[in-house]
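Hi R.,

Quick one: here's the Polyisoprenoid-binding protein YceI sequence you asked about.
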Amino acid sequence: MKKKTIAITAAGVVIVGVITAFAFLNNTLGNNVEIESVIPAQETGASNGTNTADAAAESAGAAVTAEQLNGAWNITDTSKVYWSVTTSKETVNFVDPSVTGTWNVNLDDAGAMTGEGTVEMSALDSGNAKRDEHVKGADFLSVTEFPQSTFVVKSFSELPAEWTEGTAVPVQLQGTMTVKGIEKEVTFDSQAVYSGGQLMLSGTTTVTFEDFGMANPHSIVLDTENNLEVRLELVLSK
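And here's the predicted structure, written out as tokens:
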């Protein structure tokens, strides 16, 4: 009789755990953020994200001078950084529109170029307030203690000497990403476009939960991939 009671109690604990997990999932599942690319899809051949720079395509074709490109560029308030988490059910995107920073362009000397960006983590948004509160809390990003994440470029790949307005060119950004005070060397594989007096940059890199001292949020009813995609969608102006 005692063994039967223990078995029933254990089964009850499992059932409660499953119900709790499902209740948590109901409050946290669902992707509410679509990635918006700053670079026209027809220029890069990319199929991911939503094109938000149709005007750039209309002005394609004109040659861009070094004078137009060289110099200090500032990240504008239309820029965004996305974090994407993939589970066994779906990919959930988080967007952060609070991005500042600079890119100093020098077509003649890639080694002379510099770049840096800062993201205010309190602005991170997945369209689900309960999920966002949990992600910003002590279990993950600890935003109260670490309100900013940064990326400082250490080197750029060499840029082409000739640019055409509205046409994307490849560029790699190698540097240090800092999240929760933890540094990680990363490379953003990117595309850049000059159009209408603005410089657009779209790039991605992959990191893991462990890279920044976070545990993978596996549950008994949902698997989560360890890799996180970080995506820059930046618009810069002089």
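The chain is about 20% helix and 40% strand.

Cheers,
M.
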